[in-house]
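Task 17 of the worksheet. Students: predict the tertiary structure of the chain below and write it out as structure tokens. Keep your answer in the requested format; marks are given for formatting as well as content.
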Amino acid sequence: MDIRTYRAKSMQEALALVRRDLGPQAAVLHTRDVRTPGLLGLISGSRSIEVTASNEVAVPSRLPPRVQGIDLSRPDEVAAALGPKAISSRHRDSSSSVARPHFGVEHHSQHREDEVQSRVDEFCDRTRNSAAHALPASLFDLFTDLIEADVQEETARELLERVRRELPARDLNDMSAVQAYLARIIEDQIKVTGPIQIEARRQRIVALVGPTGVGKTTTVAKLAANYRLKEKRRVGLITVDTYRIAAVDQLRTYADIIDLPMAVVATPREMREAVKRMSDLELVLMDTAGRSPRDEVRIQELKSMLGEAQADEVHLVLSAVNSAQGLARTAAQFAAAGTTAIMVTKLDEAHGLGNLLPMLRSSGLPISYVTNGQNVPDDIAAADARRLGRAVLGFEYDRM
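Model answer:
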């Protein structure tokens, strides 16, 4: 029998290795945390994920029939359902348990008794060492899908636990019903603003801020082209990105092609003068220099410049390829600049969009636009909560 063991830095990387070698139908038999081998692991104490899998083991149900339908968060009920031999296994040394059984999958064994004892060990261990309760068998596959879509493990367990609590028990084995309900839960957590609204006889000043390399200048060009060419609005451009000459040249090229007025400013006074010159325009889009989220002084300077412009909206531009922790940290630190919404770029380069959820929760900001490529004026659209929710679940975000 072909049973293989993989080690990786994260569950997502481990699952990717399993699917690459064994195919999408492979069964995960066992998971645990292990210390990184070698002297480096001994010194640093770093950990990795070990996954044992096989494409020759059929696992039609990860729980025995007697366990299904009971409260999996209570080891006493699990042990009682499985019988006396299982009850005695609760008193075994906890070191024999799986350290972190992510999927609640039993060890592959030829002996039913050993298999039952192993299952109870895993349930007990899960209750002792994890804040999250064990998941019903019908949700295990969806759990792995969420992990592969870059949803953090804690968030994935929280979402599926809510599905388990709120969805009728008869529907938990219906994967379509579970996916649809989970999509609605995620969709409810994604707030969107819709496109930039231009009111009659009132100028709208919109600034884009964010770290370097997220695509602010290209996004400004896309917005300008769409509002000028498709919406037939009077649009002007202001750039504060004087740190990168290439950025000024790039935006000026777009301005010349679209036939837009453009101003380059470096001081608060120049900002006031530029806004005054463009007072007859309906929409002024402002490109700013990339700032490190850790550079509080530069962010305060940015806030001061935006204050001189009296920006109506400040959109934080973030790349979908960044980590969940990086996105949340960046959103928190740019809040000092008065951010009002988020634009998510590079959806076409992202492995998954689950990394957006912690940032959206912590920042409380809505998403205004998403970009899905480099084409100007295409590859940009107002954010759609339903489509983003499906993308978080691992479905491809439809090209715009």
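Marker's comment: Residues 132 and 157 are 7 Å apart (CA to CA). The longest helix spans residues 112-129.
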